[in-house]
Amino acid sequence: MKIFDFRDNAPSKAVASALGHNDPVQTVIITYDDPIFGNQETELELPTGIGSANVNIIPTVFLQASFSPFKGTQLKGRYFPKVDREDAKVGLYGLGLQQDFTAFLPADKLLPVTISRFNSVHPFRWKL
């Protein structure tokens, strides 16, 4: 059994997302049943997002499509449309080639990983 409670016993609180900031710091108390030591309790400070840092970035999602013309090779294309925000215009497109070197070896029977190389070109368009 696990129980998560806020330090001040509030039933719920607004906490930071990946882009937000916790002000004040939010702490939860986690109560759990340890098979050796019995009922245990620990405090955990909730992480804050990048809103607390002095950065001028935002995570972005872009469209990516890939095509495999033959075993171990992938051609990839990426696209992010032009976006006009406040004082900047941003856009991105690109092409890439990925080659899996272990596709030509019997490595899938020997190793649980693959070794590949990815090269790409991304003309990044931006204007202030």
What does this structure look like?
- The chain has 128 residues and is mostly beta strands.
- It has 2 domains: 2-52, no CATH class; 63-127, no CATH class.
- The protein has 1 helix and 8 strands.
- The strands form 2 sheets. Strands 4, 5, 6, 7 and 8 form a 5-stranded antiparallel beta sheet that branches. Strands 1-2-3 form a 3-stranded antiparallel beta sheet, with no helix packed on it.
- A hairpin with a 2-residue loop joins strand 5 and strand 6 (88-100).
- The protein is flat, with a radius of gyration of 24 Å.
- The mean pLDDT is 80.
- Pfam families: DUF6588.
The span between the termini is 54 Å
Mean pLDDT score: 80
Give the biggest beta sheet: 5 strands, antiparallel
| Radius of gyration from the alpha-carbon trace, in angstroms | 24 Å
In percent terms, what proportion of residues is strand?
over 45%
Globally, the shape reads: flat
Number of helices in the DSSP assignment: 1
Number of domains: 2
Q: Outline the low-pLDDT stretches.
A: none
Succession of helices and strands: EEEEEEHEE
By secondary-structure content and strand pairing, the structural class works out as mainly beta
Please give the number of β-strands: 8
Provide the helix percentage: under 10%
